[in-house]
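Dear colleague,

Following up on yesterday's call, I've attached the two folding results inline so they're easy to grep. Please treat them as preliminary; we haven't cross-checked anything against experimental data yet. The first protein's sequence and structure tokens come first.
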Amino acid sequence: MRKVIWALAAVSMVIMLVIAMNPPKEILAEKAKEADRNAKAVEAAHDAIRKEPKVEYVLYEGEPANWNIGVFDDGTSRIGYAGYICQVVQEHGAVTPSTQVRIVDVVKVKAGENFRAASLGRMNCASGDTFAR
């Protein structure tokens, strides 16, 4: 009896693996539609951010979803501006749990500094957590 139970369990696991490795066409089609929606949302958010008067450039990097927004440093805190950009991204449906916006000093980036070193403020759009630099 035990051998029969183990055999059934093994067969069940093989079936589950086959299904996981070869999802039905409907699931693949839905994933493709979702990826297309996400790409369109990111593109719409990118276009909206690019139209902002303070923005010099926009760089979107995929998962984890990072938006690097280049501005000229005027000495003010840019955490509030990062929050505003998060709202723009949210309005276009492009926020995921890992979406972050980092506002960077465009002069420092052009001088060769990385985004972290040139950061003027950063926010996690999903949680609202902020980071000074």
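Below is the second protein, in the same order (sequence, then structure):
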Amino acid sequence: VTEIAAELPATWAVEEGVGIKQGRNGRNRCAYDGPSPPLGHGLHHYHFQVFALREPLELAAPPDRDDLHLLMKGKIVGFGEIVGTYERVA
């Protein structure tokens, strides 16, 4: 990863063929939905992870997180993580 764009419009989507692969999120969508914890539920932690792989993954369908971790096993050569917090107050 050499650059992560900031301030993308809400309508932005990954274009086919640009070398980016996107998996399914916690809402089973291939999209970034942003933090949205339940109102009054307290502080939530959001983990943003980047993996450098030794070789491209062969994906028949967009994987979920658990499937992705299995597919990457033994191929990870680098890793980065940022943890952000967010809370919606009632």
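For the second protein, one point worth flagging: Residues 52 and 78 are 5 Å apart (CA to CA).

Best wishes,
A.L.
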